[in-house]
Amino acid sequence: MLILYVLMLFMIIAAVIAVETRNLLSAVICVGSIGFVGSLMFLFLCAPDIAITQIVVEVLGLIILIRATISRDLTFISGDKEFFGVVVSIVLIAVIFLAGMKVLDTLPAFGTAIFTQVPDAASQVYLSEGLQRTGAANIVTSVILDFRAYDTLGEATVLFTSILGASAILRKKSRRRLG
Fold first, then answer.
1. Which residues, in sequence order, are CB contacts of 14 under 8 Å at separation 6+?
2. Confidence check: pLDDT of 165 > 80
3. Overall pTM > 0.85
4. Per residue, what are the HEC states of the chain?
């Protein structure tokens, strides 16, 4: 898929800009765009659960990084904005919008169950053989704790770590004792 190569190229460019820029806020924005494009790539690869987790982690990570950046690098906007910056911003918003529309075009009609259209889908195996293969009390437990246990553990760990990091950075009082 050509779109995946274009998105990977965009991620590489954003990574180079994040490393080379001297402005911390610009670097944080570039890192956020890398995560957002990664989420778009997961959507194009038909992995919406991973894309949602990526977005949640990106939002929490950006909150933490912007909070840390604002306290270190005070940047004030004054005067006229640069024309080039405005044009680049508009182009990026248009590209993101078009990519989102492309993803929406690939989805089936609302209410259509995809797993019924693909006979070898993992969900069909879960439903037909889940209770026999796992011995679980119900099908939800067998899917979450047996078939997708590592995925569930990874997502829970990422979310828990993000929440801990956000609360550690955003707390009001420091643990350090003065004098």
1. 30, 31, 33, 34, 37
2. no
3. no
4. CHHHHHHHHHHHHHHHHHHHCCCHHHHHHHHHHHHHHHHHHHHHCCCHHHHHHHHHHHHHHHHHHHHHHHHHCCCCCCCCCCHHHHHHHHHHHHHHHHHHHHHHHHCCCCCCCHHHCCCCCHHHHHHHHHHHHHCCCCHHHHHHHHHCHHHHHHHHHHHHHHHHHHHHHHCCCCCCCCC
